[in-house]
Amino acid sequence: MPNICLVTTDTMSINNIVYWDKTPYNNVDSFIVYRQVSTGTFKRIGAQSYSTLSQFIDTARSIGPSNGDPNITTYQYKLQTRDTCGNYSAMSPYHNTVHVNNNNGSFTWNLYTVEGTTVTPVSSFDLMRDNANTGLFVSIGNAAGNQTNLTDPNYTSFAGVANWRVDASGFNCNPTQRLNGNNSTQAAKVKSHSNQNNNRMSGIKQFATNNVSIYPNPASNALNINFANAVVNKASVKIFSLIGSEVLSTTTSDNNLSIDISNLAAGTYMVQIISDNVSITKKIVKE
After folding, report:
1. Which backbone phi and psi does 220 adopt, to 5 degrees?
2. Can 1-202 and 205-286 be said to share one CATH topology?
3. What CATH architecture does domain 1-202 belong to?
4. 196 in helix, strand or coil?
5. Rounded (to 5) percent helix, strand, coil in the chain
6. Could you tell me if 259 and 237 are in contact, meaning their C-beta atoms sit under 8 angstroms apart?
7. How is residue 111 annotated by DSSP?
8. CATH number at 205-286
9. What DSSP designation does 188 have?
10. What are phi and psi of 187, to 5 degrees?
11. Per-run averaged pLDDT (10 residues), the chain, 287 residues
12. Cys-Cys link to 98, which of 1, 105, 194, 273 (CB 3.0-4.6 A)?
């Protein structure tokens, strides 16, 4: 039976990610990931070949009532192996994601749980704040891993623009790296992120979708951004991979912007644009 070592959200709070260490398993063809869709019922949402990274990004929005969106609720995930002869293992114990809620600066969340255990693997939770919605989070409070609430005493000073999340520490998780001969202390540094919680309904508003166009999509060498009738004083434009890693960043004061993406690897990315407390996030494909 395989084991999950960590479930988390990506750094943009768009998708959940499931991680495991594949090195203990022999004769494995692929790893199959399941998500709970009703009490005690798990459905397959995808698979990863043994030769690829030991992670699965949950973009399966058509499976289950909440569709895997980390901003809606918490989720349970299980893992299964298929060997080179076509045999399937039993499913692993589930790991349950963390979802944080905000009540005017008082943040509460659920425990990170693993099926069949009575003690959470989390040693501590950090309440993290991105003060200016730039993607740079700092710890503003700490609680033991069996606690589920923290308060931001400076909440009113940041409520209009900041993002909050909780980070869970204490995991012994080293996905994929061991295959590359890297047995460093990275395992001790791996954390599980909750969803991001913010006050955008009254703070950062959304660009009207007809005010911003990003083209061509798919794109090969250049990505064009046009703000149409939107007045732009200064806009921050960031491109992220699907696991939330920032791969490109720039700023502009023009209503028309062309970005060179020729050095990006082919794949799917998220483009985030923020200007004057107004934001938009769109998906693009790099050919």
Report:
1. -110, -50
2. yes
3. Sandwich (2.60)
4. coil
5. 5, 45, 50
6. yes
7. P
8. 2.60.40.3080
9. H
10. -55, -35
11. 92 88 90 95 95 91 87 95 96 97 94 95 96 86 96 90 92 67 46 82 45 87 80 74 81 83 90 69 86
12. 194
